[in-house]
Each structure stands twice: as C-alpha cells, then as structure tokens.
C-alpha cells in the first residue's frame, strides 16, 4: 500500500490496514539512525514480502546514520516489501524544517541534506516524511509512536499526543491493543508486557542508549506469534 502512495501528494492522518494472512505482522520502534543494528535485525527476523512491518516513528536522529536508515526504508518500500512507517516527534521536526526552510537536517550533523547525497531525490525524501500518518489500525490493534490521550474527547484526533505523550500508562486499559515507542523502557519490562500479552506494549529499549544499563537494543515484535526479537546496538 505505501508503495502506491509514496509518489502521490495525498496526505492522510491514519490508515486502516487489512492483515495479510500469508505473512507475519511485525513491529519495530525507534530506530534512531542505527543502520547496522537495523540491518542485523532485519536479517535476524528474515523479513519477506509476505510480511507486514510497521515502523513506529523516530526512525532518524540521535544515532549516527539517519540518512542510511532512511535510504534502507525507502529501498524496501520501492522493492515491494510491506513497510508501513508512521510519524514520530523526530519526523515532525523534519516536516517543520521542510515547511519553514525547505530543507532536511538530521541530528547529529546539523547540515542540510543536499541533492545526490543519498540514494534518492530530495523530493522523494520530502514526500516520504510528509506522507507519514500518525497511526495505523490493524484489526484490534493501534500502532502509534508515543501513545494516546484518553482524556481527550476523541483520542484518535489528538495528534500532538500521539507524537509526544510521556509515561503512557492509562488508568483504564482500552479494549484494543496499543503498540508504541517513544519513552525508553528497560528490556525486562518490555519482555514482561509481551509474555503477559498486555494490551499496551512499549517496544522502545533505547537502541542508541548503549551507556544505560538494561537498554541499547533494537526490538522487533512478531505480533502474529507474540514473539520478541532482540538486536543489541552494533553501531560502533
């Protein structure tokens, strides 16, 4: 689906996805420019074109290789893989800079991306960021970057909270599952939420936070089997 829209100028707030019964439903959160770790994780999960892979935002910044991560994602989309990325707060920074200065800047680095620097054109990168939705809904599961604001009249229209809400632990557990990232959690807590089949699962183990104990892994959840794949940071 995303392959069809990447060259259009139709922008959407969310997408309802029909599950592909032939393949797995996979989820990765907060790659943060860690290209070596991402490639190792993709190899570990043995991604196929029958699978559907959700990327929960913050694909860029903080880690060393934002452009390489972006190129890898766009490459997979163009090659026909079912890659469904969404907007995190760091993607929102890119969109703001595009709107204000018509440029793309990654952190660290802080230098505008120039034509020919990556594998694709600046227009293709711009379309990629601008078309990112705030959330996906697949069956009884919502994929979102940070979480939902259940104090809002309609949590599914509070887009700011979807990118920014912290300490997402609602008092009333929803009757649908929420998979998110944004706020790094220790590995033991993440494993527990998966093993206990909890309705809210945070997949962000702070891949770039190699200096912090119990963090520094890029994770992938196989939502079909509730299996968690772990890939330690290998950027250095």
Describe it for me?
It contains 7 helices and 10 strands. It has about 240 residues and is an alpha/beta fold. The strands form 2 sheets. It has a 5-stranded mixed β-sheet with strand order 1-5-6-7-8. Strands 4-3-2-9-10 form a 5-stranded mixed β-sheet, with helices on both faces. Helix 2 (about 35-45) links the parallel strand 2 (about 25-30) and strand 3.
> How far apart are the first and last residues' alpha carbons, in Å?
35 Å
Q: Which range does the strand content fall in?
A: 15-25%
Q: Secondary-structure element order, as H and E? A: HEEHEHEHHEEHEHEEE
| Shape estimate | globular
Q: Any low-confidence stretches, pLDDT <50, length ≥5?
A: 1-8
User: Percent of residues in helical segments?
Assistant: 25-40%
Number of strands: 10
Integer average pLDDT: 93
> How many strands, what sense, and barrel or not for the largest sheet?
5 strands, mixed
Number of helices: 7
| Helix-strand category | alpha/beta
